[in-house]
Sequence to fold (298 residues):
Amino acid sequence: MRLILLGPPGSGKGTQAQRLVQRYGIVQLSTGDMLRAAVAAQTPIGLKAKDIMAAGGLVSDEIVVGIISDRIEQPDAAKGFILDGFPRTVPQAEALDSLLKKKQMTLDAVIELKVNESVLLQRVEKRAEETRARGEQVRPDDTPEVLAKRLVSYREQTEPLVHYYSDHRMLATVDGMMSIEQVTEEIGRILAAVGDKGGTSRAAKKANSTKRSAGKAPKTVKKAAKKTAKKAEKTGAKTAKKTVKKAAKSAKKAAKSTKKAAKKGAKTVAKAARKAPKTAQKSAKKAVKKLAKRKAKR
Ligand code: AMP
Fold:
């Protein structure tokens, strides 16, 4: 089972992902979590990402695509994974498509959690409170100011993915305003319909149906052509057809005669050209003879 969870910060992606991990024995791959770990460990990637993340910006595609590419190949991801926070832009989605293709993997579904923006601030504030209560450090980007920036970034850069995956017939949207339990149930229903469980994945099914329709295509085209011809006959297009045929014939004829004329013209010119020196020679000879005769007379 390979999924993408789409949704703005505070939409409940993390919570639902944890439940899916329990239920399906797959791993949650959150680029945000991985980047935070890299920041904490002060790795070269972490050092690059730290300030961008604190300001609510997006880390480069190169970094996140690289992280995901390595991570999905780890043995614990063999049963499947949930991508949380990735892809976040259309170029990232395209990069994901090509790397999954390379690794001969397919996606089963993309689930969008749709939430009213008005509740997001409350949810993120609640998350910060709970974190504090556990004695853990609050995320530096879970402040109202940075959240506003993250929301703008979501709207502008991530929301286009809704259309991207809808066009790819991968998208299922869930009302993220329902209770956590209800959202989980709804996601469960979607995944049951997708029906991974060792069977054919949705993406593979789609590929198969595309293959089938490709096989049918010539027949369909033929049928459509027949239909169009019948219609055309009815609407008197027959006469039009004849006229077109005639016009084509005369055009052909015209082209032929033009060719002939051109050929003829060319031949005449060539002949004249060949003759020209001879004529000039002859008249020169004649003139010489005349002169000689005149001289002799004198
Ligand atoms: P998140 O935990 O998903 O809200 O991510 C926290 C921060 O990590 C984001 O605001 C970005 O700065 C960075 N980040 C996470 N995932 C990505 C991604 N796919 N592309 C770019 N930046 C990301």
Summary: Confidence is low (pLDDT under 50) at residues 197-248, 261-281. Residues 9, 31-32, 35, 52-53, 56-59, 64, 85-86, 88, 92, 141, 150 surround adenosine monophosphate (CB under 6 Å). The longest helix spans residues 237-297.
